[in-house]
Amino acid sequence: MTVLHEKRKYTYEDYCQLPEKVRAEVLDGELLMSPSPFRKHQEISREIEFRLCQWVETHPLGKVYNAPFDVVLSQYDIVQPDLLYISNERRSILTEANVQGAPDFVIEILSSGDKKRDTIKKKGIYEKYGVKEYWIVDPDTETISVFILEGEAFQEKGIYKRGQVIESFLLPGFTLVLEDVFKSDE
């Protein structure tokens, strides 16, 4: 992740001027760039997305999207979660170009070089704007931390590891077997 050191707050308008191939987010006005995710990150993302989409297919209560898809939380907060879910009741926040507001459920998969971005900065931003459920997937430790918005603050509901099953608090009946997520190279 590279931070551009120009001393100013970046806005959504500035963000839109970036070349399309640049992977970037704006967090509290700070423009952060990062390289493409590694293979393990992509494999984990695909496994979770596949299972989440299967659940949505049998429970058509919302939509699932994956990165890159801009989520505009404010003029100074533009993120691209690895995976996001928006309930049918909140579909009005979807536009052709982006999401205008907080998704119901966000999943971020950590990259080795920038864990603080997802575990501290983005977690605080998601909390501030009202994401109801937030999962942080750590490929290195093969764990998933689950946070639920209670009032105005996230409460950690558990850290799950291989051999365990997570059940979403927001999506009744959506379970994830961590053995499936953290498959070994074969």
Any idea of the CATH topology?
tt1808, chain A
Helices, by number, come to 4
What is the class in the CATH system?
Answer: Alpha Beta
Helix content: 10-25%
Radius of gyration: 16 Å
The CATH architecture classification is Alpha-Beta Complex
Number of strands: 14
Portion in strands? 25-35%
Overall body shape: globular
Placed side by side, the strands forming the largest sheet appear as 4-7-9-10-11-12
Please report the distance between the alpha carbons of the first and last residues: 30 Å
Question: Could you give a short account of the major beta sheet?
Answer: 6 strands, mixed
Note the run of SSEs as H and E: EHEEHEEEEEEHEEEEEH
Structural class: alpha+beta
How many structurally independent domains?
A: 1
Low-confidence stretches: none
Average pLDDT, all residues: 92
Going by CATH, the homologous superfamily would be tt1808, chain A
Describe this structure in words.
The structure is a single chain. The protein is α+β, with helices and mostly antiparallel strands and 186 residues long. The chain has a single domain (37-181), classed as tt1808, chain A, CATH 3.90.1570. It contains 4 helices and 14 strands. The longest helix has 20 residues, at 39-58. The protein is globular.
